[in-house]
Amino acid sequence: MGMFLNSIEPYDKYKTITKGLYFVDKTELLEELIPALEQEQRFFCITRPRRFGKTVMANMIASFFEKSEGGSDVFDRLKISEYPKYKEHLNKHDVVYIDFSEMPKECDSYKKYISRIEEGIYYDLREKYSDLYLKQEDAIWDIFSKIFNETKKKFIFVMDEWDAVFHMSFMTEKNREDYLLFLKLLLKGQSYVELAYMTGVLPIAKYSDGSELNMFLEYNMATRIRFSEYFGFSDEEVDKLYEKYLQNTKKPQIDREGLREWYDGYHFSGHADGLYNPFSLLNALKSREFGSYWFETGTPTFLVELLLRSHYDLYRLTEELATADSLSGIDTMETNPVPILYQSGYLTVKGYDKRFRTYTLGFPNREVEEGFIKFLLPFYSATSKADSAFEIVNFVHEVENGKIDAFMRRLQSFFSDTPYELVRDLELHYQNVLFVHRIQIVGLLYTGKISHFGRTY
């Protein structure tokens, strides 16, 4: 076992997950991948928001296929063990697992970044195929080809967070082109590729408008329903998890309806069933209290700045209309931020018009709505992030106590203190400020039981 080839790490990580009290068995995904082995269409790319189980599934796939002796301990008790070809494929394949979000020590260039991967794979292959003459100066794809031509051995490639490198500070436009070329030469048209499974956050089209990665059949949130059930929890799965919570908690503080209100509501196509955010739901059960667990793991500063630059009317966040094609393409995000808001998990499908094939979008649940609106406030007024929650509480107290004059003075201050550069479209700016405050105040007054404009989740 090496660092990349048949690494023990995916197995160890997935085994740890399966031991958890709130583990959910998603191994039926393997039944959809096994028939694709060595087929022409054997390239899969799954794009989902962060923290939606992509890495867990990647670890599961690698630990099932890779050559090792520990797989039976984990998979014999899971759903995949009932599959007719289970034993035929359990731990029978050479797997190259690459987590593209990992970097070498003190990495300050793309050359250092990609060299870690290329050299690591080379050393693994040299150790396994010590009887072959493998030259380190050869391209890594040429080394794989040499192994295949001399041994007929093929490889499964499992690649997690393939687009993480695009967000690293050292990347230049030339580096991005080189990286796409690296993936193309490593995978496209190569006979040694038995299966390729790749995950990311945003669609491939965000980074490649050419033919580099067109061998992948991409399953994003807008156009394909397949695989949706493996990234998120269904109502039935949450019912079972909640039963475990009740059985293992002396003084339950979480109610079942609260889980639905806070974390349900994700629809990854017009026809898919609703799904719960797995990261937030599991954290709520483990912590025994509701919270914005998913939202707090990432700050949407870039998205808010995009809303400001495009002069987006925030009222549209509650009932935005879009087509599947528009949600898949985010190349026009400077003028239309909706696709990237959707792909990032801040908006979801709330309705589908079959006649016109259009989606109605909105916030998926209370966690996202409250977190996003609270985050917006300092960008649309002079209020600091530290003071925004305090100001909203004051608004609510003034409404509850009938202090209308104080309420109006506070609201007026939000308008008068707004920086000039934000108010080129004065009417739109006022609308957006009112929108942010209205959502916050209504949410606190009614403790999240009703959503904006009377619509419930």
Summarize the structure.
Helices cover 42% and strands 9% of the residues. The protein is α/β, with parallel strands linked by helices and 457 residues long.
Key structural traits:
single chain, 457 residues, alpha/beta, five-stranded parallel beta sheet, three-stranded antiparallel beta sheet, disordered C terminus
What does this structure look like?
- There is one protein chain.
- By secondary structure, this protein is an alpha/beta fold.
- 42% of the residues lie in helices and 9% in strands.
- Strand 3, helix 8 (173-187) and strand 4 (193-200) form a beta-alpha-beta unit.
- The protein is globular and about 85 Å long.
- It starts with 8 loop residues before the first helix and ends in a 12-residue tail after the last helix.
The share of residues in extended strands comes to 5-15%
Looking across the biggest beta sheet, what order are the strands in? 2-3-4-1-5
Contiguous low-pLDDT stretches (5 residues minimum) are 444-457
N- to C-terminal distance = 48 Å
How many distinct beta strands? Answer: 8
- Count of DSSP-assigned helices: 18
Radius of gyration: 25 Å
Shape: globular
Structural class: alpha/beta
Mean pLDDT: 86
Largest sheet: 5 strands, parallel
SSE sequence, one letter per element = HHEHHHEHHEHEEHHHHEHHEEHHHH
- Helix content, binned percent: 40-55%
